[in-house]
Amino acid sequence: MNNSTFLHHISNHISLTGKEEKLLLSKVRSREFLKGQVVAHEGEISKFINFVISGSLKSFHMDNKGNEHILAFAIEDWWIGDLGSFATQKPADYTIQCIENCELAQLSYEDLQILYTEIPQLERFFRIVIQKAYVFFQRRIIDNLSLTAKEKYLNFIKQYPQFEQRVPQYMIASYLGFTPEFLSKIRKERSIKRSKS
Amino acid sequence: MNNSTFLHHISNHISLTGKEEKLLLSKVRSREFLKGQVVAHEGEISKFINFVISGSLKSFHMDNKGNEHILAFAIEDWWIGDLGSFATQKPADYTIQCIENCELAQLSYEDLQILYTEIPQLERFFRIVIQKAYVFFQRRIIDNLSLTAKEKYLNFIKQYPQFEQRVPQYMIASYLGFTPEFLSKIRKERSIKRSKS
Fold first, then answer.
1. How big, in percent rounded to 5, are the helix, strand and coil portions of chain A?
2. B79 in contact with A at a CB cutoff of 8 Å?
């Protein structure tokens, strides 16, 4: 693993000593996954949280009709996992799956509890990371409640232009709560409008 | 303010010394608000986060058509605020308003930064509180994407039976993304079904 990517991300919020960095890295497990591979399964306890060194992933919930509902995407420098399952060590509501080949830096629940004791500043680090993720969800809930379907889509591609290139359209449709056909209709209308203007 | 309620809540996650408790309480501002009173306005910077000693509140976003979209409710022992605005000290997306008369314990942004330095354990406390709030939102997003309207309502009253008694129905409708008429229809169907069984 390229340690500098991970340590640089950590240093965005806290300053660790060389000794602390060494201890942290000793607990981080680097793993590679192939496109389509499942990193963590719904119904199983999430043992790891995952920091994305490279690649892209999705977390999704399967409803009882077998439909996949995408909760989140993640690319380089993002964290992904079922935080509810990880924090409580109860079965997960979400599956985490690779959209592209991925390299992940993983921290286990047990190791993170040790690290919280040994490097209390990590409490601050994760407080800030989780706070950002919370605000992101807060924004998403309000967008879901207050925007039209078209506004939701335009908002999404404005906020995350990189996803439009890297994530298949049917996944973006699932994330936005649309059918693939409906998203295709919105995109078509938009491209007609753009080519006319 | 009844300090013991607040300190008991803190002690759910961390153990403070007498000196730390005293310092923390010296920064907490106790305030009373009347039913309907606005605690923090959308568009203004959220200076405080609020812990509910008594009463109930809602946070909502007003869309450009003047419709109110409720993001969250809060009752005793819950925190409420626009965490995005509070954390970044940028204008709020949400208004926080009392549903009942309220007593709140408020912490200002500046004081919390001082407290994080003086009592680093508070990083842990808020990491856990925000983590729980994040998981709550995670659940809500998936419910919105994967449940039918009726399932959403039944889920809500099962999870938060206290809200059904204390919060007007039109607010519950707004929270669930329904019109009040639609919620009324679901409730009617349910009561017919229950009286038949």
1. 50, 20, 25
2. no
